[in-house]
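Per-record layout

source: Limosilactobacillus agrestis
name: LysR family transcriptional regulator
length: 288
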Amino acid sequence: MNLKQLRYFLTVAQERQLTSAAKLLYIAQPPLSYQMKQLEKELGTKLFIRESHGITLTESGKIFQRYAQQVVNLTNETTEELGKEQNGMRGIIRMGLISSAGNIVPNQEMLNFTKFYPDIKFQIYEDNTINLIDKLQNGLVDLAVVRTPFNMQDLAKVNIVTDKMAAVYNPNYYSFESNELKLPDLMKQPLILYRRFETIFNNSFAQQGIYPYYAVKCDDARTSILWADRGMGIALVPYSIAKEYTQQQIKILDYSRWQTKIQLVWRKNYQIKPITQRFIDTFTNHLA
């Protein structure tokens, strides 16, 4: 028994005549009649009662018609679904996401994308940038939203947003007159350092002859902000994180080298799923 025989049977059952069924199937009547006899032989039961005015289904034929229709319908649905996935119309996108992108992703481009492709599903894996890059390189995620700096080797990217650095502090303990701070304003201030940016900060301070005082060092921008909220010092963190996680004072740092980018990254020279490519194209075309 094969799918072609099931389709033949359903057409005969619908038309109740071999002649008209053969015309619909674009085959001659004898081969169609042979296929039906082979089907009855394989099933070990009569499916049709052949009469002078046409064909009627036996009780076995009616039962088989119901199951044959289910099989053909399921096959058609499966073929359609696989076609959609192959053409990038549906599927699952495994996305790595840094916590500090919470107010940036999802964005309007993603909302438009899901409206245009309603059968798309996302699996989100949250972690820090370094771990997400590792997951990406090991094929555990299809793409990732991460924050610079990181090792770009073997990765392709598209920028989502450029983020300035900001100083977060409790005004009950510290104060600055200007709305935007420069590096000399931080001299002799107790700084709370997010270690990811230590090299960048140290190089910048050194170029201006500033010796920074790091009162606290930690590994998460949210921890930096929490300690700043409690008056333990001035946290130096990306502005998008600052405005998301604190109600305290935020001052933009007016220094071009102290910028970080949130980027969408994926592996170079690696065959990615069609739907993932469509998602990447959405960002690429928007920013082109």
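summary: The chain has three domains: 3-86, 91-161+262-287, 164-259. The longest helix spans residues 59-86.
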